[in-house]
Amino acid sequence: MNYDAHQQPQEKKISVELTLNEALALTGVRFRDNHKLEVNAMAKIKRQLEEQIIDSRRNVQ
Predict the structure, then answer these.
(1) Which of 10 and 33 is assigned the larger pLDDT?
(2) What does the CA dihedral 39, 58, 56, 37 come to, rounded to 10 degrees?
């Protein structure tokens, strides 16, 4: 996925709802028996980014 940040004149913001444990996992806290917390959190962020990029491309066309 390529995205040219220079196309956007201002910083865009996204919102992603994470559980407390998911947020902690993204900061580097390790949950021995639950690596899925970090995986799920990253998946949520990636999904939101993809939706944002798709929406911005629709608005340009």
Answers:
(1) 33
(2) -10
One-letter amino acid of 35: H
Distance CA 31, CA 33 (A): 6
The burial class, CB within 10 Å (0-12 / 13-18 / 19+), for 60 is exposed
What residues contact residue 26 under an 8 Å CB cut-off, 6+ apart?
18, 38, 41, 42
Please state, for a pLDDT cut of 70, what percent of the chain lies above it. 82
25: its two tokens: 């996992």
